[in-house]
Design brief:
Helix content: 55-70%
Order of helices and strands: HHHHEEHHH
Radius of gyration: 23 Å
Mean pLDDT: 86
Number of strands: 2
Length: 179
Amino acid sequence: MVDHVVEENVNQVVDPRKGVPGAVPDPPGFELPLLLFAGFRTLIDRVHAELARQGHPDLRPAHGYALQAIGPGGSTASDIGRRLGVSKQAAGKTVDRLLALGYAERTDDPADARRKLVRLTPRGIDALTRSAAVFDALRAEWAARLGPGRVRDLENALRTVVPPGTTSRLDATSWLGGA
């Protein structure tokens, strides 16, 4: 009979900290991805609010991914779709919206007259330049709040656990539900 066992210590085989004075239990595992996503979402929302204030009110997060996928030299709709992880048709729809908003233009491919390239316009380059500056300012805010060392430690820790080559993957729009 174990009626003399203190209830707090019964689960010490499962959780060795149970019943240990001052032990702080780890949060449940599902909180980590939610906190990472909330941090991501907070940064992206703030970037787009600032971009709207700076003259880019129609730019949406999916557009930012597409502008990155177009790149400095331009890309075909197929290449954009591949980089975004969406079909050529879905990429084409996003490109059409960027064309209508003045962020991109279609041009002939100088290497192959049968192909059309999507290129950034000065407005598209301006949006990317401004977003880079806003991201730098937001990182500086985090560093001021958390301390520069903690922000660097966070970035380095994430680089350790994120598979190499995936930090520049642009297919989050398809993974999160739309381009």
